Amino acid sequence: MITGANGGIGFWSTLQLARRGAEVIMACRNPEKGETAAQAIRARVPHARLHLVPLDVASLNSVAQAVDEISTRGPLDGLIANAGMVHTPRTRKESVDGLELVAATNYFGHYALIAGLLPVLEETPAARVVTLGSLSTSLVRARLEDPQLVKHYSPWRAYAQSKIMVQSFAFELDRRLRLSQSSTRALCAHPGYSISGRTQIIDGVNNPSPAKVLAGNLQRPFSQGKSQGAWPIVRAVLDTDDVDDPGPVFYGPRGLVRGVPRRATPAAITTDRWAANTIWNAAETATGISFLG
Ligand SMILES: NC(=O)c1ccc[n+]([C@@H]2O[C@H](COP(=O)([O-])OP(=O)(O)OC[C@H]3O[C@@H](n4cnc5c(N)ncnc54)[C@H](OP(=O)(O)O)[C@@H]3O)[C@@H](O)[C@H]2O)c1
């Protein structure tokens, strides 16, 4: 299952997994965009096994409905928590649940989704949860005492802090899964710097403006397309070389911002135990959901 599978890295991860014969649940908030993306994949992989599930990850009600629907389908082998707000609002906004919108989308919603789907993941031996981290985790002064940025909102901090939270959450989830003797593993991967202007045009899926294509060409030495950006994510969900690794397991491009996937070093704050507990507790408070406590 991939959240935000209709565009960007989620689309390319779905296509690459479909090419390997995987059956993929595409969880998308806009059904038309989801259908367009599924058709684009079927045009390239005629026998692709794709299922669309509605999911607005910024709404806890929508998350609960998606959990109910997916739980009736039987075991889940892997979950890629990809959906994300990358272009964040200039001023602080709240989700339908009254949570800071960027954190609600990038972290709290995925926390609730993973908590709800853990039973169906655990039906598959060695199932995998992959969250989407970011290089921005090293580039911001976090305010973890203010997880919803009531006092310290800026568009950049909202993004980078949400990525610190979701990256730390993957590593803490993995620790707690191991402690509970679960065979499910949680990992994190980041796509470097992967931009739409350097990505193949696919009508309805990737239609960059001429300005974005120009910007993409200017940034060629230190960027890549989103199809390459999907490689570390696909590797994180499929590669079994790391199965006995005590973690944290983090993948990213060999050239930091671009290139083939390899093991990467996560930002120190995302492997800090105090920060991890603060971040986990913030999600419990925000969502009212506790698991693996
Ligand atoms: N691109 C990079 O260089 C980069 C670097 C580091 C990390 N990442 C991470 O990689 C992930 C994907 O990024 P991207 O570059 O592929 O971004 P993108 O092209 O903007 O795609 C984001 C996807 O998330 C979906 N989404 C956003 N809000 C949602 C919600 N509330 N519910 C359900 N789906 C939602 C979007 O759906 P709609 O089409 O409906 O908006 C879209 O499918 C993000 O988590 C991002 O933080 C990206």
From TrEMBL:
The reply to whether Oxidoreductase figures as a keyword in the UniProt entry is: yes
Which domain of life does the protein's organism represent?
A: Bacteria
Q: Which UniProt keywords apply?
A: Oxidoreductase
Query: A Pfam family this protein belongs to?
Result: adh_short
Q: Which GO terms describe its molecular function?
A: oxidoreductase activity
- Enzyme superclass (EC): oxidoreductase
What's its EC? Answer: 1.-.-.-
* InterPro entries assigned: NAD(P)-bd_dom_sf, SDR_fam
Q: In its keyword annotation, does this UniProt entry include Transferase? A: no
The record's similarity note reads: Belongs to the short-chain dehydrogenases/reductases (SDR) family.
> Which protein are we looking at?
Putative oxidoreductase, short chain dehydrogenase/reductase family protein
